[in-house]
Amino acid sequence: MNAVEEKYILRDSKTWRDPYKSYKYLRDYEPVHRVQHHLHGTFWVLSRFDDVFDAVRNPTVFCSSKGLTPDVNAMEAFQDSAAPIVMMDPPEHTDFRRIVSHLMTPRKVKTSEQQIREFVNSRLKEITTQDEIDIIEHLFKPLPSLMVAHYLGVPSEDRVLFDRWTNDIVAGSAEGDLGNKPATFDLFEYASELFERRKRNPAEDLVSVLAQDGDNRVTALWAVGFVFTMITGGNDTTTGLLGGAAELLTTYRNERQKLLDAPEQIAESIDEFLRLTSPVQNLARTTTRDVKIHDTVIPEGHKVMLLYGSANRDEREFGSSSERLDVTRKIKKMLSLGYGPHHCLGASAARTMGAITLECLLDRFPNFSVDTLNARFASGSFVRRYEYLPFSGGRNY
User: Fold this and answer.
1) What residues contact 239, with CB distance under 8 A and at least 6 apart?
2) Does the pLDDT of residue 170 top 70, yes or no?
3) Residues 62, 237: Cα–Cα separation, whole Å
4) Beta strands in the chain (DSSP E)
5) In angstroms, how far is CA 386 from the centroid of its own chain?
């Protein structure tokens, strides 16, 4: 392993292909790794499962309210608006989460299953076994966009505009220039109007719940921030799961056969796909006091990158086969959807979209493959996802 691979780097579209050798090195030799970055100064990286798991469950020591990137000035962008819920700490985070969480339960998500299945099948019907298409653009990106719009209560007549803004904002977020995108201002205005509309005429959606909060804790600015969180947190992560799952099923053909032989096991296998793909590969917290981990002291006020993509492949937690797909693996805990106070609100929706998509895909194209050599990763240092992934429906093994 060369010197570059041994070090943690903030990755981009050109370096996302295989970060796992670096991750293993960090776990084995530098589990508390110090980075001196040319822009962000000194920050630290945790790569072992137990260390990351302990950090995400302890927001009093590893806080989110200073931003989720290694940039010490990350929160300056929110000086004139409310911080998103993902950048809050308890008890404020707990209070706001309680307002909307009941609309994202497994029971509520179950009512969307038919809509998801119909959309997936309609897109798959447009593919013939002779086609080679970009499965990201055709299915894996529009599906989560559809569901985010559904949960937010965006009227059907506004979906075309909403989808366009969503695509631009997700791309802008990956590039780090969210505030400079025209789509941001258009969606800000739209979300503000939708919030006011739902105040007057509520429906059964997340924006209505926010608008009808009886304690008047939710302002229009905070609601708009929540909309942005749903878009950036729900779209590219689900796309990352689906693209990564297609890659794993192309690579591990014996594991694919297990699901073809027992499709009822697909839903239970989704956590294994989430574990290995880890769409959100890393996010930062800030220490509120000096913290000793192993033999290293991380000083108070320093950013700490929690390396979920490494932790989810840690042999210490998942055994000697931790780097390989095993669709029958029983997973007690993982970090792909967060844990503790910041466990992903959309976890049930992500699992449901993943399970239904794989069910439909394997049913219609049992011999599909994706061409990862000619694929392309999206920009951004925190979410690992394909933005272009050639798909063939009829290639035989």
Assistant:
1) 136, 140, 141, 144, 279, 385, 386
2) no
3) 23
4) 32-37, 41-46, 62-63, 132-134, 283-287, 291-293, 296-298, 303-306, 369-370, 376-377, 386-388, 390-392
5) 13
For residue range 305-359, what is the model confidence (pLDDT) as tens digits? 999 999 999 999 999 999 999 999 999 999 998 888 778 888 899 999 999 999 9
Q: What Cα–Cα distance (Å) separates residue 300 from each residue in 68, 83, 91? A: 16, 22, 21
Q: What is the spatial distance between Cα 391 and Cα 246, in angstroms, rounded to a whole number?
A: 9
Compare 256 and 395 and report the one with higher pLDDT.
256
List the one residue out of 200, 266, 194 whose CA is nearest residue 224.
194
Residue 179 pLDDT class (50, 70, 90 cuts): very low
Indicate the SS3 state at residue 91.
coil
Q: How confident is the model at residue 77 (pLDDT cuts 50, 70, 90)?
A: low
Residue 91, preceding peptide bond in cis (omega within 30° of 0): yes
Provide the pLDDT for residue 59. Answer: 93
C-alpha to C-alpha distance for 78 and 84, rounded to whole angstroms: 9
Task: Give the pLDDT band (50/70/90) at residue 215.
Answer: low
Angle at CA of residue 280, ends 349 and 55, nearest 5°: 105
CB 124 within 8 A of CB 361: yes
CB–CB of 266/358 below 8 Å?
A: yes
Kindly write down the DSSP assignment for every residue of 105-170, as one continuous string: SHHHHHTTHHHHHHHHHHHHTT--TT-EEEHIIIIITHHHHHHHHHHHT--GGGHHHHHHHHHHHH
State the amino acid at position 318 in one-letter form.
F
- The secondary element (H helix, E strand) that includes residue 228 is helix 220-251
Q: Are 16 and 276 in contact (CB under 8 A)?
A: no
Q: Which of 140-144, 162-166, 239-243, 366-370 has the lowest mean pLDDT?
A: 162-166
The CA–CA distances, whole Å, from 241 to 106, 140, 143, 279, 350 equal 19, 9, 12, 6, 9
* 320 contacts: CB under 8 Å, gap ≥ 6: none
